[in-house]
Amino acid sequence: MPLDLTRFYQAANPSRPIQDPRYYIDFSAVRGGDIIQEIARTIVRLSPDEPTTQLLTGHIGSGKSTELFRLKAQLEATNYHVVYFESDRDLEMSDVEVTDILMAIARQITTSLEAASISFQPGYFQRLFKSIADTMRMPIEISEISLSAGFATITTQSKDSADLRSQLHQYLEPRTKNILDAINGELLEPAIAALKQRGKAGLVTIVDNLDRVYTTRKSGDRPQPEYLFVDRGDQLKRLQCHMVYTIPLSLAFSDDLPILTNRFGVSPVVLSMVPVRHITGECHPESLAKLRQMVLARAFPDLSERDRLAHLPEVFDAIDSLDRLCTISGGHMRNLVRYLYGCLRKQDPPIPRDTLERVIRDECNDMLGLIDDREWQLIFSAVTARSLQGNSDYNELLRSLYLYEYRNDEGRWIDINPVLAETHIFRQWQANP
Amino acid sequence: MNHPPIDNHLLRHNQQSLAELKTGLQREAGTFSLTIAVCNYSLLRNVLLDHLSQGDRAQVLRLPAHITSLFAAIQAHLHTATPPALMIVGFELFSAPELKALFQAANLARDEFRKQFALPLVLWMTEPVRQQFARDAPDFRSFSPSAITFTVPKIVLEHALRMGAEQVFYTVLEQGGDRDQTPGALHLRGCPSLRGELDFALQELARQGWVPDADLAASIAFLQGRAAHSRLEMEAAKAHYERSLHHWQTHTAPYVLPEWVKDMAATPLLTAIEKQAALLMHLGLWWRSNAVLQRSAYQASLRQARRYFEQCLEIFREEEQRQRLANFLHMLAEVLQKQQDWDALETLAVEGISLHQETRDRIRLARDHGFLAEVALVKADWLTAKGEAQLALKLLQSVAAQLVETPEDVPLAQALAIAQQFQQGWYQFLLGEAEMHLGQTEAAIAHLESARHATNPDVDLTLHRHVLRHLIDHYFNQGRYADAFEVKQALRRVEYRFNLRAFIGAGIVQSHPVAPPFGRDPAQREIAPEIRASGRMEDINALLRRLENPQNQVIVIHGPSGVGKSSILSAGLVPALYSLQPGDRVKTVPILIQSYDRWQAKILTALQEALSPWLAAAADRDQPEPEDVRSLLRFGVEKSQFFVLLFDQFEEFFFDEPDLDERQSFYTFLQHCIDQPWVKVVLALREDYLHHLIEAERIGNEVSRLGDLDLLSRSVRYPLGNFTPSAAAAVIETLTTNAQYFLEPALIQRLVADLAAATGSVQPIELQIVGAQLQRNEISTLAQYEALGPSPKEKLAQQFLTAVVRDCGPPHEKLAWLVLYLLTDVDRNRQPVRPSKTREELEYELLLLGFPVEPQPLDLVLSILVGSGLVFHIPQQPEDRYQLVHDYLVPDVREVQAPDLIAELDGARAEAKAIAQSQHRGQAGHRRPTLLVQGGAALAAIGRALERRFKQ
């Protein structure tokens, strides 16, 4: 089967997310300890009755949803009632308030439980719905038997109309405490009791895609992620059932991480990059093999892994060039694809080594202009320490991709972006630290 | 202009990058892709864009100056065209903050670009713009591979640099003359993007290890000197200028253009001696800036500036460049004026007259006469001064008249505008002063008033203040005290605005209406500068943060009397609210209620006013108009307004509405507002009335469905206290430092100790009064303070009062004291109180004292007392009232009164009070006694006192 150049070119366009499952490669084996196992264990073994709150984060597209589906299956196997939902379907991610999250959660829980024939007594929420209906002149379905319809109206209206959302924020936010109390007292407590009566072990809610909240500024110029999860984390923590939230990666490296950890009582669990090297610095053959497949799958989606390698000469002048591409990416998938795309733009395949080197040089020049002396000093000290010790300056370095973070069963470490590792300035420092 | 040889040269030079870009455009046609192209030179970029848009390969989108977002700009363009690819240029024309916003928004919307635009996008950037893009839009950037860079060959760069420098030399000497040579204008010369490209060229050549020849190095030093000078990096600027000057004094061989550019239109090349002149002029400018920056070296710097300007002008004389001599003559004249070397100035001005007659430059000619007028004024030759100043003004008028005929003469119009801004007021001032000395008072005042309005404090603060001070003196000397006071207030406002006054003295601060700039809401006001001087900005910011936070619906501000609640509301919070735009709101409408009779009508009027455009539109469309307060609020919220209802001196509400039913309707309304989205409530009241809110809370909770109002919780209350001693010290330090009025630390310490002596904390009003007087006395050391006497703080407060009374004019000082006295009293516990009185009551009591007054002097005294901030003017139905601003002033007022006056009036008033109290018990301690009852009693007492006086 000959290489379809146009398709290959488009599959390598870094602006396009993977939609074709044939390009998908499972990296979980090389990413270290089973994070999902740990979250499930915390709920099932350590705290079956005391509600827990756990936080998951990682680069966008690092496979969080896949992992959360695994979690859901595991928990259901141990007899938990699991409510999983993609929060970006209920929330307007540029403008989220805590009460939005609470209402979305209440909606999903009531919907799921009512479907399981568990119903709720009308109480605070009936009155709240009526009061909102009066004040906002918003038709809300208020039913004696179903609360979920009311929550659904409010979340849907709030997501769809900026104007209504802003008014709802004004109405609901001052009442956060009362709403929390009512969710706990009128929804969760009776629900869990009813579930247990039916022999269930308990209730777990998984809020996916909450890491996609924008970094827009909230009042007081506070970035939205910090505002929601740090400033008001204690309110998200107060829900009286097992909760798993996905949160933005920046928080895991933020100055506010200690406060965040304190508010939630746990540190966020991070899905990290593919370690192309071991913590000791030697090549990681399993990771490399998977990254090679990631490149070749884009050229030959329909071939088996072995056949793809056999066709390698159509894409690269030598396997060394492919390996060079994989290692220089540092296990950052988007960058791997960007460099591949850069090569294809300079030259039709098979890609010779010197074209790849020119692409690396271009990237290097792009980055060098950005890094000032202060940042170099930070990079040097991070590389020396191999870890990021609660300095928010590092957060910028991670976000700018000057530094990469790896976590696997060998531990957790920091390395410089391999492109920068080859610069004169870094080499000079390595020789005379 | 097309220069194919150069174009081809440039395209060949960038062959590889071009091929890469073209591959991208070709392969991705019909699908989204993102490419960053980096090019630092507009010349090269235009060549490349021409080349790339040939054969309908791609279109160019030049970003307009005002765009809401990159996404929207592209979308708008694609609305009318469907090119195979789009190249976007013009990013470098935006300011860094604009670019930041643009890129951050693009980063957030990155998925939308991918989904909506099915074509390759190429963003053309300069290197600094690309770096900002990488910083502010890292995720968006990751959609593209590394940038494709385009460069210019070295020989072209070097030539561009040389021509750029020549261009600057030429512009400096040829355009505008002295008018353009203010330090602020240095960096504006020439085209900013050209300057940016010169920087790129320099950096690029430096990277290639290139060393410029001596001529070019000297030109570059000149450019670097100007750049450093405009950034006020003074030492670096001077070094660059001196190095460049030295070169042009020793190397005089002309530069020869290379063959390959001969045919290109180029700037005429200047000779070395002309470049010398340019540098001498810049060094003169440098010393003039230095004189301002280093006040201690003022005279020495002026001497240096004079030396350089004289040398510069000497070159023009020797080279017989009459035009340049005429254009730059006044640089030297200004220095002579500052040196007060009147003889030299006179000689130069006379030379100027013949020069500027020769060059037919009436605007500079006017200035020559202006200088002569000033010299004459100094020499007490009033008639000459008047004549010269009139001549100067007449010349400007004749230019203005000519411009009516020839409006197309833009340079002349600009020159006139500058003269009107900088010099016309000065001529009027000189004329007015001369007339004043000649005894032509009326004309003099008229000219000085013109000068006052023609001088702009933003342009020449020193001259403006000088004019105002002279006016105040003239008015006062002529017994026009009200006019003098009005100018004094104007001067004070200017001084607050420019941070020359650290303290605000007494009184509630009112915000000043802002002259509405184009397109701005005329209702908008700005935070009074006095509020910044009150040390309360932090409180205002905290209140704003609370109001924009959706978790708060209501704020209760509470504090002791005199702590500044009313000032903070009316001059700080309310103006600041106008510019608050929380969430999706387009406008914040603060509604301030200060008295409680007919509160509903007041809110209704304010709402109708704020919503008038929409109400009119609704009426036009025959829609039902909302009529009551509630539906108006609802109507406004739907129009994306944010309402903040502020109820000041809320304790008064409990007196104005003694009836529970009335109060109930207010509380129900309050609860309604609190429940409404985007309607928030601020209540400000004296601390000792806080408990009255329990009633409001109870009734509010009865009427609402959810019943969750909690008015006294900590998240609702905002306590506003006196300053702690350490906070007071910090406030004094900030205020004085901002005003460049530096107090000895020992003095601040002592001052705070004295201010806190009585209660352990510092009352803001006392701090302001004592501070204001301290600055008026120019006291900055502890020794000066102690020299005031045994109790310096009290002395200062007394002086403050005396100064206000003195402003009323010598004939009215006694009346002013009496009015102040009548506005004080002591209660049964000998505690000072401040009765509020109507004008009529004051007139009666003055009569009672045997001090009958005409309406006019009383008007004057009251307006000055109110204007100075000592006395509140409380607008009220049926008659306005007056009240001393603070208890703190009561003893001071009473102590300076003649004892017999006190005795006489006290007798009458004790009687009045006894009657009042027998009729009206249980309401002691009001901010304001119930009027009717006590008013009647007072009248009766006054009647009796009058009878007694007649009997005597």
What is the element layout, followed by pairings?
The complex is a heterodimer of chains A (433) and B (952).
Chain A lengths: L4 H7 L23 H12 L6 E6 L5 H14 L2 E7 L11 H18 L8 H13 L11 H13 L1 H11 L3 H22 L4 E7 L8 E2 L3 E2 H8 L1 H5 L4 E5 L10 H8 L4 E3 L13 H15 L5 H6 L8 H10 L4 H14 L6 H16 L4 H13 L6 H8 L3 E6 L2 E6 L1 H4 L2 H8 L2
Parallel strand pairs in A: 1-6, 1-7, 2-3, 3-6
Antiparallel strand pairs in A: 4-5, 8-9
Helix pairs in contact in A: 2-3, 4-6, 4-8, 6-7, 12-14, 15-16
Chain B lengths: L3 H10 L1 H13 L5 E6 L3 H12 L5 E4 L7 H11 L5 E4 L6 H13 L1 H7 L3 E6 L1 H10 L1 H4 L6 E2 L4 H21 L17 H16 L6 H17 L3 H17 L21 H22 L4 H21 L3 H18 L2 H17 L3 H17 L3 H24 L4 H13 L1 H14 L3 H14 L6 H17 L3 H17 L31 H4 L4 H12 L5 E6 L5 H14 L8 E7 L5 H12 L1 H9 L8 H10 L2 E7 L3 H6 L3 H16 L3 E8 L6 H11 L13 E3 L5 H14 L6 H12 L7 H13 L5 H5 L5 H16 L5 H10 L2 E2 L5 E2 L3 E2 H10 L6 H13 L3 E4 L6 E4 L5 H6 L3 H21 L11 H21 L1
Parallel strand pairs in B: 1-4, 1-5, 2-3, 3-4, 6-9, 6-10, 7-8, 8-9
Antiparallel strand pairs in B: 11-12, 13-15, 14-15
Helix pairs in contact in B: 5-7, 9-10, 9-11, 11-12, 12-13, 13-14, 14-15, 15-16, 15-17, 16-17, 17-18, 17-20, 18-19, 18-20, 20-21, 21-22, 22-23, 23-40, 25-26, 27-29, 31-32, 33-34, 35-37, 38-40, 39-43, 42-43
